[in-house]
Amino acid sequence: MMDLIEKVRPAVTRHVRRTPLLRSDWLSRETGAEIFLKCENLQVTGSFKARGAFAYCSVHRPPSVLASSAGNHGLGLALASKTFGIPCTIVVPSSVPRVKEEAIRSLGARVVRSPHAGYDDTQSWTLEHAAGLGGDFVSPFDDPAVMAGNGGTTALEILDEVSDLDAIVVPCGGGGCAVGAGMAVRERSPSTRVIGVNTDASPGMWLSRRDGRPHLRVESRSTIAEGIEGGVSAESFRLAQETVHEIVTVPEESIRRSVAEIALRQKLVVEGSAAAGVAALREGRVRGGRVCVMLSGSNIDPERFASLLRENLAEPRSAS
Asked: Whose CA is closest to 81, among 109, 59, 102?
């Protein structure tokens, strides 16, 4: 896959931002380590998933595309398809945050709401109705070009700036981003560990690791981290076994607190999925001398974000 990462990198670089890599004084003090943040929340669509979408379109040149998405993959594919001038249909769960659905539609994509609230059921519904919906189905985590663009190019940018990291921490849903990062790290910095983070409300990859088999579907509880909700694929699980060193889980409440703390301490807006890696650090699930955490996206519903800030401000906080 390293050859594919290098192949798609020029197209990704041409169409998306090289996002900032910031040293976090707050997290470094709190953890006793040196913590960096890769700010994909500042990406063109507010998420790293624009990378994989442009990688896919540049490699496959599809006549039209179809995807199921909790929001960010759909946003990336909508932008890429608009850029390449191809029709795009995105099927979203009924629970998708309004801000994500409206943003996808604003980019010219057709948006279809599935009758299901969870990602796994939405993907199944999309595949069942694919002939009528039209377009080449683009998985958010199970296509090599998407993996290479998402995790691979992000990891290379991180390693270009900080080459001697102990770990890169990646929010993990279906596992494609973690796999792409793992492939890049294995080639460029073999001593760096790649750690994927699940929410305990939907620990698809963690359960798969525990049981030694891919959990294609999981019974998810309600989660603020809808971007990493759902199961994995057989292929992403197989590749993660080779390239991802560890999968950890974090409590929903810790993710909620971390969304607010990142805003208050770092002055950055992130969605629930993006806060999972910071939550893992703060829960002691990730240790190391020099660690980079990927802030994967910023597409959080404004009302939910305001509510999280109010909750956090109502609680006593230690000095910055």
From this structure: 109
